[in-house]
Automatic annotation (TrEMBL):
Pfam families: Methyltransf_4. It comes from the Eukaryota. One of its GO terms (molecular function) is tRNA (guanine(46)-N7)-methyltransferase activity. GO terms for biological process: RNA (guanine-N7)-methylation; tRNA methylation. This is tRNA (guanine(46)-N(7))-methyltransferase. It catalyses: guanosine(46) in tRNA + S-adenosyl-L-methionine = N(7)-methylguanosine(46) in tRNA + S-adenosyl-L-homocysteine.
């Protein structure tokens, strides 16, 4: 089941009154549904846009007056075929835009149920280790491969819940902007 905005809605509810959340998805119907739910729940701090983050992220952010405190990339389409890898959401331009617009101290959370995709995302962000650093807090435990054992945000995506319920693995990493 694809994400339907519930992750962002839960974060918005948890942090109502002092943090705003914007969800991006290429699927217009899911975005419309998520905006209806936000309105029904009176979550004025949650909004969803139909957009391809890879293409639109850099042009959307200059219209926002603040800096990003949290960016989450959750279970992106894996595009397994070699000729389709260029369609993966995490591309160098997107990584550069995320880092440029994330506030000092802001966090970047990556998660996938496909190890190959998670490794690719992690590798792309770790080319910027002078500007970002892997978040190192006592409460965060890693696997032998350096993946976070648990979700540090306290809210799980729909995909994460489904994968874990079926006994699958999640590959997670979190970074902080310096």
């Amino acid at each position: 089941m694809p994400g339907q905005g519930k992750f962002s809605l839960l974060l918005a509810k948890k942090n109502a009154g002092f943090k705003n959340y914007l969800g991006l998805d290429v699927r217009r119907m899911l975005v419309e549904k998520a905006n209806v739910w936000a309105k029904e729940l009176n979550l004025v701090n949650a909004h969803f846009l139909t957009a391809n983050a890879t293409v639109s992220f850099g042009s959307l952010l200059p219209t926002y007056s603040g800096r990003l405190e949290l960016v989450c990339i959750l279970c992106p389409d894996p595009h397994f075929k070699l000729r389709h890898r260029k369609r993966r959401i995490v591309q160098p331009a997107l990584v550069n835009d995320i880092i440029r617009y994330t506030a000092v101290g802001g966090k970047i959370f990556l998660e996938s149920d496909v190890e190959e995709v998670a490794v690719d995302m992690r590798n792309q962000f770790e080319t910027h280790l002078g500007v970002i650093t892997k978040l190192d807090e006592p409460s965060l435990q890693d696997t032998e491969d350096g993946w976070l054992l648990d979700n540090p945000l306290g809210v799980c995506s729909e995909r994460e819940i489904a994968v874990l319920a079926q006994g699958g693995k999640m590959y997670r990493a979190i970074y902080q902007r310096r």
